[in-house]
Design a protein that fits this description.
The protein is of the alpha+beta class. The chain is built from two helices and five strands, in the order βαββββα. The strands form two sheets. A three-stranded antiparallel sheet has the order 3-4-5, with no helix packed on it. A two-stranded antiparallel ribbon has the order 1-2. A hairpin with a 4-residue loop joins strand 4 and strand 5. The radius of gyration is 19 Å and the shape is extended.
């Protein structure tokens, strides 16, 4: 399944940054939905794996057409046959994290691999 293409700009007001400062560093950035395409619930992007409310929770940005909010959510406890964790929050819609393909990241990884191979190729010498 392809990754959802929704994105939102997170610009945190100074008072919110100050409120979270003792436990969580909030920085303005573009958030990209990590869920599979076609989901019906709010979009979601992981903000921090360190949640001050508990070790089995993470802070996520959730958004829709009307609003953006921060949410403290439990991790999805599902593991695949390789014992890889899902990487999304509990009760997330659609596919688990390992089934969601990020085509941009895949293209970037392929380009980096090709560039690395090109750089490590031995130069051809006469007679070879």
């Amino acid at each position: 399944m392809r990754r959802c293409t929704s994105a939102v700009r997170l610009d945190f007001p100074a008072h919110i940054v100050a409120l979270f400062a003792p436990t969580l560093r909030l920085e303005d950035h573009d958030a990209f939905c990590e869920l599979g395409e076609g989901h019906d619930e709010d979009h979601a992007d992981l903000i921090s794996i360190k949640d001050p409310t508990g070790p089995d929770r993470a802070v996520w940005a959730r958004w829709n057409d009307q609003a953006v909010r921060l949410a403290s959510l439990d991790w999805c406890q599902t593991e695949n046959h390789k014992e890889d964790a899902c990487g999304l929050f509990a009760d997330h819609p659609a596919a688990h994290g390992w089934d969601v393909r990020d085509l941009l990241k895949e293209a970037q990884a392929l380009a980096l691999e090709r560039e690395s191979q090109r750089r490590h190729r031995r130069p051809r010498t006469e007679g070879n």
